[in-house]
Design goal:
Strand content: 15-25%
Radius of gyration: 21 Å
Structural class: alpha/beta
Number of strands: 14
Low-confidence stretches: 1-6, 210-216
Order of helices and strands: EEEHHEHEHEHEEEHHEEHEHHEHHEH
Number of helices: 13
Largest sheet: 6 strands, mixed
Helix content: 25-40%
Mean pLDDT: 89
Strand order of the largest sheet: 3-2-1-4-6-5
Distance between the termini: 57 Å
Oligomer: single chain
């Protein structure tokens, strides 16, 4: 068993709407072990809007949702410690990176304003709380817990943690401009043009993940299967099954593709591509000046770039600039924990006043979205 005196541990958490991943790290940032579990709050809604509505109908559900999550976090932190023969008393800091709704639930903030226009929130900077208060003292944790601040109701601390990670790990800003896509339950996108940040978001993950749960495969496998189906002439570029398979569906690569699944994926694909095109248009950047495209998130991690480009999920002119970067929310939380500054680095992005683009408010949004409703 490791000696307390030489073992300083920290816990990094990526608090997602659908799933939660945590890592226990040593003082150098080395990952000792990781754990993963489904977010138990899904009992009260598969997406953030449903959970907000649940909490607005009955405010007692905010505490219920928080307690469910804390119980699971306690269980998995204890598992990481005991499995690796470590001490809870050696944990001297925790960072939880999550979207605006998830962090607001942990802090038991009233969610009513977050769920209706103009979507106000209270997380305009990172929040530091005592572990004894947040974790109900079940594990005897005694350390500060950093909860990530947010840029808007839709661009949360998970995205800001991702920006912090890629700008440090890959020197992203040294190349003047880049596009960051976090494709998880929701699709958050940030474009940096060398001076300013532009951001938007769309619902994409629910379609991929709902389809994946039905078929017991990754959403990215569906993308591959659809690409194969199109190439074989069994699926049209408009997303329609060949007449032979219209009623029964089509089996490709061990995946059953129905008309409903094709429609769900098509809607998500159109939303992502439309978001990318809107960011480029609103920032007025020349596409040749976008030097790198970083794709993060659970869905993005398994993405086959060739097939994603083939069905039009990623514009072809960006395909040779893509870097798959994994769970940047968790990696960003780890970097925050090992940052030696007295300030909390993701608050820099909040202070930079990222320009949030509400796609649905743009006069050309519907036409662009309809134009992207195909597998081209």
């Amino acid at each position: 068993m490791m000696e307390n005196s030489i073992c300083e541990l920290k816990i990094a958490v990526d608090l997602g709407t659908t799933s939660v991943e945590l890592a226990i790290i040593d003082k150098s940032g080395y990952i000792v072990d990781t754990s993963y579990f489904k977010n138990p709050q899904s009992l009260y809604g598969k997406d953030v809007i449903t959970r907000i509505n649940t909490a607005v109908r009955d405010k007692s559900f905010i505490k219920t949702m928080k307690d469910l999550l804390i119980a699971s976090l306690n269980e998995h932190i204890n598992k990481l410690v005991t499995t690796n023969n470590l001490y809870v008393s050696s944990i001297n800091k925790v960072c939880i990176s999550g979207n605006t709704t998830m962090i607001s639930i942990l802090l038991q903030y009233d969610l009513e304003e977050l769920g209706s226009y103009p979507f106000n929130h209270k997380l305009d900077k990172s929040v530091i709380v005592d572990s004894k208060d947040l974790f109900n003292n079940e594990l005897s944790l005694n350390c500060p817990v950093i909860l990530t601040g947010c840029s808007s109701a839709f661009i949360g601390g998970d995205v800001l943690s991702g920006l912090f990670y890629i700008e440090n790990k890959y020197d992203a800003k040294e190349y003047d401009s880049y596009l960051f896509l976090d494709l998880g339950t929701n699709g958050e996108m940030v474009l940096y043009d060398g001076e300013n940040y532009y951001s938007t978001s769309c619902a994409c993950g629910p379609a991929f993940e709902a389809s994946s749960r039905c078929e017991n495969v990754y959403g990215s496998t569906l993308i591959d299967a659809i690409a194969v189906g199109i190439k074989a002439g069994k699926i049209s570029r408009e997303g329609i099954l060949e007449d032979t398979f219209l009623q029964s569906g089509l089996d490709i690569m061990g995946v059953h593709i129905s008309a409903d699944i094709l429609r769900e994926i098509l809607l998500a694909k159109a939303a992502i591509k439309t978001g990318i095109e809107i960011l480029i248009k609103e920032s007025n950047i020349d596409i040749s000046n976008i030097n790198n495209v970083y794709i993060a998130g659970g869905f993005g991690f398994y993405l086959n770039i060739e097939n994603a480009t083939y069905i039009g999920l990623i514009p072809e002119y960006l395909s040779n600039k893509i870097k798959i970067v994994g769970n940047t929310s968790l990696k960003g939380a780890i970097r925050i924990l090992t940052n030696h500054s007295d300030t909390y680095p993701i608050d820099y992005y909040i202070e930079k006043d990222i320009k949030i683009i509400q796609m649905s408010n743009l006069p050309y949004y519907q036409d662009l979205l309809i134009n992207n409703m195909n597998y081209i």
